[in-house]
Amino acid sequence: MKIQTGEGAPRIRLVSIEVVEKIMTTYRAERNDMRPVIWPISKAIEACEVGGHVNLNEQPCARPLSHLICYEDDIIAFCVAPYIQQGSYGMGVSYDRWNYQGEIIEQGATYAFVKNEQALTQFKANWRKKLEKLSEHNLGVVEATLATMHAVDAVTREPEQHQAEVDAIRMAVQMERYAFSPYTVYRERKTIKEVMNNARPVAPTDRAPGRLPAIEIVCLRIAKPAEKSEPTGRHISCRYELDPFERRQWYPSEKTHKLITVRGHVRGPENAPLRPKRERIYKVTR
What we know:
By secondary structure, the protein is of the alpha/beta class. It has one domain. The chain contains seven helices and twelve strands. Strands 6-5-4-3-2-1-8-7 form an eight-stranded mixed β-sheet, sandwiched between helices. Helix 2 crosses helix 6 and helix 3 (120-134) runs antiparallel to helix 4. 26% of the residues are buried.
């Protein structure tokens, strides 16, 4: 799947919550906890551009999500379903095209990944049933998926042979990062039923545990660096001790930040006198 960009990119159009629920009926037959995320096409493009580096050897995604990417005339449903089983993990990805009346007009590719080759056989047996539920009207997709199911190790070793799978993993991770970043602004799109039942318990048959309302991506608040100010003329005339502190360190080779602890050390010019730590003195007045 390629997201169209540039001058020919379609105008923004958003799907109604009623159509969202109609579309989700198909995917929740397999995963009732799958959460819809509504994307204007411009925000889906931005998510893939700023999503950062993706390590294919780590567990890619943690949330079952159905990304509904809204084009002008149709909707791409990009569904991501992670599974964790017996210390290993897997992830299923599917692309389908829907219209704005909630009717499927094209069933796209379906991919599946597991952590390593050892878990591949077991997952194929388990996923046959899962994929058949998702693709009852097109069993050919199930057979094609099982035939091309790959371990993440194989995808990592031979990325040029599995480019579609690599792109699917990266896109899934980048969109999940963007949607649930602390800097992302989104709004919930609840159905009338969900709004009415918000203040009281919902019957188990009506909502499965963990089912959450749809969210619509609004924007990403990107911090802007402060403008450089004129030098103040201030200089350090002594050395002083710094206590240990935490810092978000950038690793260029991994293209990510990691939280590290900086050990306590002495700061200041080497030839400057050492300023002793100020001790707190208590004065008792009777």
